[in-house]
Batch of 3 targets.
Target 1
Amino acid sequence: MNQYPYTTVTLEIGWTGNYSRTPTTNRTRSFISKERTAGFPLSNQFLRNTGNLTNIISPAGATGYWQLMKATGKSYNLEINEQVDERYDMKLAAEAACKYLRAAYSEFDNWTLAAAAYNRGIDGIKRQLKKQDTDNYYDLYLNTETSRYIFRLLAIKEIVSNPSKYGYHFREKDLYPNISTHIITVDTTISNLATFAKSLEINYRILKLHNPWLRRDNLPNKSRKAYNIIIPDSGYYVFTHIEMDSAKAIVDSSNVGLSNDSIAPADSSNKE
C-alpha cells in the first residue's frame, strides 16, 4: 500500500465501488483493504471531509486525514502525543475510522445515522434521538454542520461517481500517478530526522511529506515500538532535465542546483 505526500486527498474509506477515476482517487483508491469496508454502503465510503489538509484542526480539536478527535483516536489505539500523532497516518487513521463507523452502525442499525455520528459523535446523536423522540435522521433538528453533512456526503459521492455528468473530464495524463514506496521499520530512537533522511538518500522534506505523523524533528523511542516509515523508491523525486518552453532549452538538473525533492519521476515521459 502506498501513502502519498499530497495533503489534499479524497475521502474513500475503501474502494469497493465502481467510481470514475479522478486525479486524487486514482492515487488513493487502494490505501485500505476491501475487507475493512465490506458491507459499507457506497456513500459511506466518502466520510472524510473533502478538501481538508493534513494540518487542519477543527474547532472541536479533530485533525488528521479523517478528522478524528484525540479521545476517539486513542480509543482505537492510535498513538497521539507531541512527537507522534497517528491521526496523520493515512492507513492507521482510516482503519480507526472504519472501526468507528462499524461501532456507530452497531449502535443505530442505520448507515445514515452512523454517518451523522461520524460528524456529531455517537453519544451526541443518541442524545438528540432521545430528546426529539425519533429514530429517523431526517426528522432530527440538528446544528447546521451536522444537518448539512449527510447531503454534502451524498453530493460528493454523486460527483465522484459521475464526474463527466457535472463537467469534470479527466484524461489519463490528468491523473496523479502512483508513487512507488517501500516501508522501513524502526524500533529505536531517531535523534535527528534530517540526518536519518539523508542516510536514505532523500531529504527531510520528503520524509515529512510521506510521514506527516512524525510531528517533530526527532523520534524518541524508549519503548522500542516498531514504527513503519514510508520511503519513496529511489529516483522518483529526481529531475533528469527541465524543458523550458520559452527558450526550448533542456537543462540538466546538476547545472541548476535542483534538489532531489522535485515533483516529477526521473523516468517520466510526459512532455507538456
Target 2
Amino acid sequence: MVGRLAHLPRIIGLRTRVDVADHPALERRAVSRLCCRGVGRDLLHAPSRFGLVVAFALSVLAGVSISALLARLEDPVRAESAAGLRRARDASRNPALASVILTAAVIAELSVPLSFRPVPPVEPAYHVLATLPRGPVIEMPVYSTRFAFMRTQYMLSSTTHWMPLVDAYSSHIPQDFLDKTDALGAFPTREAFKLLERDRVRYAVFHMDLLNPEARDDVIVRLREFDRYLLLRYADDRIWLYEIVAYPNGLSRSERESAPQ
C-alpha cells in the first residue's frame, strides 16, 4: 500500500527528483509529505470547519433516536391483544420517562459555562472618522501575508465609519495587493503615496500601540518628513488619524476633487 501511495505525487502532478519506490526511507517521507503537507494542509482552507460536519452528523443521529422514541409513545387505545395491552401500559409511562430524559439533557447543557470575552469599546478615532467626508482608508500596520488575518480587526472597526479599506482581509487576496504590500507597509513614503494616489485614498489610521518602539520612532520620523501632505485629525496614546490633503508631486485634495473624472 505504501509503495502505491509513493507514486501519488507523480499522479497528481508533483515533481520528484528520485524514484522513491527504490528507497524505503524516502518512500515513507514522500507519503508523509503528501498526506500532511500537500493534500492534508494545502488543499484544505479551514480544516477546523469539519467540526460542523460532526455536529450535523450528531443531529441526524439525534433525530433517529427521537423518531424511535416517539414511535414508542403511540396511543395506548390502539393496542388490542394482551401483549399489546402490556405494551400500552409500558407506553403510558414513556411520556414521563421522556420528560425526565429531556430535562436532564437541558440541565446538562445549561450547566456548562460559556465564557465570552467582553467586546472592546470602539476607538474614539473611528467615531471621528465617521464624521469626516467619505474616502478610502488605509490602516497601519498593514501586516505581512503571514499575519494578514490581523486585518480583520480593521474590518470590524470599519462598521463604525463604513468607509472602504485599502488593507482588509479575505480568503483570496489579489496578487496586485500582495505585490505592493511591502511598499504600503512603509507609508508614508513617496512610493506608498504614489500607490495610494491612484485610488484616491483619503485617510490613514496609525495604530501606534501596535508598533514596537523602533518602528514607532521610524513612523514618527516619516510623518514629520511628509507633514505637509498630512493633516492630523485625531490622536491619543493608541491611534493617530490623518487625512491625506495632498500627494507629493501631485494635486492637492481640493484640486483632485474638482478635477474632471
Target 3
Amino acid sequence: MNTRFIYVLFACFWVGIAHAQPDSAYYWKGNAVVGSTADFNDPANWWIGSFNSGRTASQSPVSSNNVYFTAAAFTSGTSTITITSNANCKDMIWDNAILTANAPTLSASSSVELYIYGSLDIAPNMNWSVNGNIHFKSNTAGTVQIRTNNKALRMCNFNIELGSGTTLQLVDDLRVENPSTSNNIANRGWISLTSGHFHTNGKRVEADFFSSTSGNNTRRLTMDNSMLVFDGVAWVQYPWRLDFRVQIMRVFRQRVRICV
C-alpha cells in the first residue's frame, strides 16, 4: 500500500477523533471573547478542556459533554447566552463565584428543547430564562442532582425521563412556573415524571401541574418530608395526576384528594 495514502488515512482518523470531542469538558469563553450575546450551540463560543485553553470546540456540546460557566467568563458587565435551537449536554455547572454585577442570562424560547444527561447546578448570580422544555435524560445508574439556588424555572415542561436505575435528587427547593405570570395554561408549568426515580429529598416543590401517567414505564417518586404545592387551574381536572400507588401525600392550596 502506498505510504502516502496510509499517512493520509491516519491523519484523517485523528482529525475525526478531534472533531468528535465526545467526552471533552466545554468551558464558555465569555464576554471577553464572545461579546454580550452569543449562541449556546455555536462551537466557536466554547473552550475545550479548561477555560482559556486555546482549544476551540469544533462542534456544539453533545450528551457526553459537561459544560461549565465559570466566573472568569463573566468579568465585564452582563451578557446573554441564547439557546437558539435544541441543545444537549451532560452536566451543566454554573460557577457560584459569578458576581452580581456580571450576572449572565441563559435564554431560550418556548419552542426549544434542552436535554441534560447529568446534573444541573444554577448559580445564585445568574438569570434563568429558558422558557421551553427541559429533559433530564441520564441512563447512568446512580444519582444526578439539581440545585436551583432559589431560581424559579419559568418553562413549559420539566421532564424527568431517566433510566430505571437513575435518581434525580433535589439539592434545594424546586419551583417550576409558567413562563407567563398566569397559572391557567394547561401545557405550561408542568413537572412530568415519565421514567426513573424523582427524589424530593425533603425539599419544597412548587409547580402549576404534576403528572406521572406514562403507562408501564418504571417510575418511582419519593417525597417524604417535602411540601408539594401544585396550583394550576385550566381545562385539566386536577393539577396532580398519577397512575401508580403512592403512600405519602402532602398537597396544598388545591387540596387535591388522591385515590389509590
